[in-house]
Specification:
Oligomer: single chain
Shape: elongated
Largest sheet: 6 strands, parallel
Low-confidence stretches: 42-53, 136-160, 208-213, 215-240, 399-415
Strand content: 5-15%
Number of strands: 13
Length: 415
């Protein structure tokens, strides 16, 4: 049961992290995910890293549990083999420059005519229509949300965490799983449109509602202070759990509840703050968070973080230390759950990866295949297609599927 998508074949036409992450999540759940790699693509060279938000090792890690076939979609033979692959699949993941698969006759409109059950997911920066829809899927939609990433704990410099790519990959994998159920029940597939920009906005929905309200009611100023470029950033300066600097590090605490706020004021011997209109309720405290930080941090700087965490916990205020990623990875709970595991790269180098944290009946998905080199399984996959075609010919089923080595002789659909 820890591989519920066993028997589902997914063909992945992707460049960059978003589509690869979607495919990896499906592969972790047992799907047979076949990546269509460019024969001249080298995932280890530096040019690959220039177009994606992750380093070469991280990009390679997204290939786990998949197989790779090398096809040149610029050639008739490559397109023919791609058609054969897709006709034996239930799912197609697309994350390529706009029109690439349409020109190869592999767009949803063309494929759905002969494969009405097909679940086809297109991941792009901005979606399939609209003023920005023609953009390359690798365009970092995350740039439009730089403000959200800028609100990092402790006022540190923003990190280029690929939130947009990974959020889109998660939405795509969830949507594919749901669509497969519908396709099984009704015999009809669907074209799923997953924009990175929209996915990133959606995962910040708690903040987006407040920002939309602020923009509608006070487009020019917040709290009497004119909006600057920084104030107008997505997320602004506020966050539900703001961070504060103690003597030896940062911590976060809940300032939303009035009971928590009263307890904090008493703890820092500043009960006068209870009468300050700027901090009257959670909304006002969020609006004036920068001022509040300037008021409280000088007090917090007198003692270590552990001291303040103990004091806050003692009076019932939810709080947490702000840790580094490496420290979290070293946490005993992470080791107990077995989330960090070794991984052998195509080069033979051993690194580590974070496996799927999901458990089903107490068991997590199994990593049954290390990340392949581009085209590593081309021979095996083409042999399988030939065998499947031969079997279909004998049974009289699937006569429209050509053998793997057969070229398409009819013109391919144009845009």
């Amino acid at each position: 049961m820890n591989a519920p998508l066993t028997g589902i074949r997914v063909i992945e036409f992707c460049r960059g992290a978003a589509g690869a992450y979607c495919g990896m999540l499906l592969a972790d759940m047992g799907a047979d995910v076949i990546m269509v790699d460019d024969p001249v693509d080298d995932i280890s060279n530096e040019s690959q890293g220039q177009h994606g938000p992750l380093g070469a090792t991280a990009q390679t890690g997204l290939r786990r549990n998949k197989r790779s076939v090398a096809l040149d979609l610029g050639t008739l033979e490559g397109r023919s083999l791609a058609h054969t692959l897709v006709r034996g699949a239930q799912v197609v993941i697309e994350c390529l420059p706009a029109g690439t698969l349409v020109r190869a006759g592999l767009g949803y409109e063309a494929l759905s005519v002969v494969q009405p059950h097909l679940v086809y997911v297109s991941i792009s920066a901005f979606g399939q229509d609209g003023p920005r829809s023609a953009g390359h899927p690798g365009v970092p939609a995350i740039d439009a949300l730089r403000g959200m990433l800028g609100a990092t704990p402790g006022r540190q410099a923003p990190r280029d965490l690929p939130v947009a790519d990974l959020a889109a990959g998660l939405y795509a994998a969830f949507s594919v799983s749901a669509a497969l159920v519908a396709a099984q029940q009704h015999g009809r597939g669907v074209h799923i449109d997953v924009p990175m920009l929209g996915a990133t906005l959606a995962i910040a929905a708690l903040r987006a509602g407040e920002e939309a309200a602020n923009a509608a009611s006070e487009p020019e100023a917040v709290g009497g202070i004119p909006r600057t470029a920084d104030d107008a950033r997505f997320g602004g300066p506020a966050a539900p759990w703001p961070t504060f600097r103690a003597k030896d590090g940062y911590f976060g605490m809940d300032l939303d509840g009035q009971a928590h706020w009263r307890a904090i004021c008493a703890l820092v011997h500043r009960v006068d703050l209870l009468d300050d209109s700027r901090f009257a309720n959670a909304r006002e405290r969020a609006r004036h968070q920068a001022v509040l930080r300037d008021v409280l941090e000088p007090v917090f700087m007198h003692d270590d973080r552990a001291v303040w965490l103990a004091r806050l916990s003692a009076v019932g205020v939810p709080c947490t230390p702000i840790s580094t990623y490496s420290r979290v990875l070293a946490d005993p709970q992470v080791a107990h759950m077995g989330w960090v595991r070794p991984m052998v790269l195509p080069s033979g180098e051993t690194t580590h990866t974070i496996v799927s944290p999901v458990r089903m009946n107490g068991h997590g998905p199994v990593t049954h295949r290390e990340p392949p080199a581009p085209g590593e399984h081309t021979g095996d996959i083409l042999a399988e297609l030939d065998a499947e075609s031969a079997a279909a010919t004998v049974t009289g089923e699937g006569a429209t599927v050509p053998p793997a080595g057969t070229l398409l002789t009819e013109p391919l659909p144009k845009d």
